[in-house]
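Q: What structure does this chain adopt?
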Amino acid sequence: MRRIDLRGDDGVAMTEFALVLPVFVLIIAGILSFGRVFFYWIEANHLANETARWAVVDKNPYAPTTLQQAARDSSSKEFQQDVKVCIDFPTGAVVGNPVRVRVQKPFSLVPLLNAGTITIRGSSEMRIEQLSASNGTAPANYTDTSPFGACS
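A:
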């Protein structure tokens, strides 16, 4: 009859691995999620800066589409979904006054459960350099009623 040694160390490494694996996977998933959030934040600020630069000189090189739609379409395919691009003139559309561009994108930290949703925001504000019509109203292509929604 064979005697079983309960003090043996067979299987200890497997047990330790099973205890450490969930923590390790959670850390890796957190790092990847943080990287995506950081990428989206950079993308939102880049879009806001580029769009503001076109808005301050009152040019839309992407006509006949609106500047908001062109900004959204020029971003990466992954970023385009549910993004809002808003252009407004806080003190009126007059040369020397500011134009503000805001970009918003919802982001789910746990996409499988659709939990932990945050809003990633980027913005840019520049002074208007020229307008085609100086009547104090926003150019038609820059309204908040674009199909991409108003920013909060």
